[in-house]
Write a structure and sequence with these properties.
The complex is a heterodimer of chains A (about 260) and B (about 120). Chain A is an all-alpha fold and about 260 residues long. Chain A has 9 helices and no strands. Chain B contains 5 helices and 2 strands. The longest helix of chain B is centred in the first third of the chain and has 14 residues. Classes of the chains: A mainly alpha (about 260), B mainly alpha (about 120).
Amino acid sequence: MILRFIENIGNRTISSISSVFEALHFTTLCIIHMLNPRSYNPAMRMVLIKQIYFTAVGIIVPFIIMAFLFGSVIIGVVISLATEYSLQDKIGSIIITFVMDEFAPFFTALLISLRSGTAINTEIAVMSVNRELNTLKEYDIDIIDYLFLPRIISGIISVTSLSILFTLIMLSSGYLFTLFYMNMDFHTYKFLLISAIEIKDIVILLLKSIAFGFVTMLIPIYSGLKTGNSYTAIPISVLNGMVKLFIALFFIEVLSLLLQSL
Amino acid sequence: MYENISLIKEVKENLSRDKAEEVAAEYLHKVALSHIGLLRVSQCTAREIFYTMFIRALMSKKNSILIVLPYSLIKNLTKIDTLIKNIEILNDKKKNILLIDTVTNENRYKGYSCHIIK
């Protein structure tokens, strides 16, 4: 009984470690392919354009509306709290840190995960079940180059560009709020932001967006690839993929907070 | 279907999309299927899908193409002769084309221009 229990723990440990190594191997492979100019063939470029369209352009109108609504409310709360605690002179740096370093990239990554992450996980899972991936392999078509790389790159480009857009919208709605709530004119608001912004904030925004964009696509792809042979395995694959993706997003967020606090 | 056929040329020979689709169009034209170029798989008949798959197989670097149970692939196929003729028209690279079928279908191949190996 005890022996079986120990064996069970051993098996689970080995399988967990091997699956982590397998995932890391897949990640490394994708990065190597990303750095190889030969991966960028005409077919891949066409898929990349389509993916950027579906991921970033297709979402733009609801994204702007959502960014404006959520942005206004949240920035309003931040500004009113800062006023309540007599931190008016720090409002510029509070807004910049909150919007650029934290909220914009994280919120964008969440939106893209919910919209495109699930779609890509399902797409790859269906292709895997239908053995379409095997057909591509039979024709010597590298599935990393043709299927995965365009999705990963589109994820990076989309999350980064939408994060920048989100930041701009949030900062604009921040101006509207300061105008009506604090009677602040545009030049004062602009001066507050410009004096508060640092290169560090731009670097954090870009690095976080790139990291978020990478995992937002990589994890659903990997999860879809690991789908079993039946259609009933598809929802399980999407479910597992999304859980892993959200854990990864939170992990990146916590890691960035830790690094910033150093 | 253009996209379906041209993919291999684009990936393997780095051919631009337009040029790869031109090649695909040429092949489809040879078997009078130019009209399916812009259609999706769900809009095509079994015969049209079969020729698309065959042209795609011709694009690969492999020397032999196996066609397993053609009568099952194309449900309403009555005469194998038209199929063999079209395969010969398309097979400009002179690849080995092997049709694999069951003995029960043997009579359907007799008298036509292909070698039967048991």
